[in-house]
Amino acid sequence: MDPFWNGRWNEAPPAYGDQPNVFLAAHVAAVPVAGEVVCLADGDGRNGGWLAGRGFSVTGVDSSEVAVARANARGRNGYHAICADLRDWPFPPCDAIVSIYAHFPPSVRAAVHARAWASLRPGGVFLLEGFSPAQVLLERTSGGPKDVAMLFTAAMLRGDLPGAVFEVIDETTTSLSEGPYHVGPAEVFRVLAQKPH
Ligand SMILES: C[S@@+](CC[C@H](N)C(=O)[O-])C[C@H]1O[C@@H](n2cnc3c(N)ncnc32)[C@H](O)[C@@H]1O
Q: What's the average model confidence in pLDDT over 172-182?
């Protein structure tokens, strides 16, 4: 479907490493026990597969068929990757949405987040890490889109997740070590939000 992403996922070393994202791993206790999790733009399943290993029932969605083939080749019980475009994928009811470096143009992001948020059951959580605009403004070389409109801000996520209770909503500097494409100082945005009961 997408030559850019298929090309990246055809490279031998996993583009973003084979370990879960650090923010996700640090906050996994917030995900409802044994819950159903949807991982947006899950790539080769480093995050979704890791969650399945912790007892969650995980669906990873990504539009790259190469990534999805790699994800399903992991053969993790409780993990299933689907090749679909999130712009028109029908979200099932779920207990958590995990969005790790899932950057989209503004109109796509707003619509995807709206449908993801609507699909969450009460008490469910929305966990996101991506780059903030400072990544471009400071000319960081640790990855991400160069179009600032595709990067995340607190005002944006407060608008995308109406009624959310935010446990984390931060822009911060970190040091990434996630495969060959996320390496070095980085300006990231993180959210952990709960949908009220
Ligand atoms: C930076 S990678 C992140 C992969 C994974 N979340 C991770 O952190 O390892 C972004 C992913 O978004 C996927 N993607 C881009 N646009 C998409 C869309 N409209 N629907 C589904 N996946 C999409 C790409 O195929 C790619 O795998």
A: 98
Please state the domain count of the chain.
Answer: 1
* Atom number in ligand 1 closest to CA 89: 20
The pLDDT of residue 2 is: 84
β-partners of residue 38 are 59, 97
Name the one residue in this structure whose structure tokens are 């999130």: 86
Q: Is residue 16 within 6 Å of ligand 1 at its C-beta? A: yes
Cβ 41 under 6 angstroms from ligand 1? yes
Across-strand partners of 172?
188
Edge to edge, the sheet with strand 79-83 lists: 79-83, 57-62, 36-40, 94-100, 120-131, 182-194, 165-178
**CATH number of the domain within which 25 lies:** 3.40.50.150
Asked whether 129 lines ligand 1 (CB < 6 A), one says no
Please write the tens of the pLDDT for every residue from 127-136. 999 999 999 9
Stated pTM of the model: 0.98
Structural domain for 179, as ranges: 3-194
* CA gap 162, 167 in Å, rounded: 14
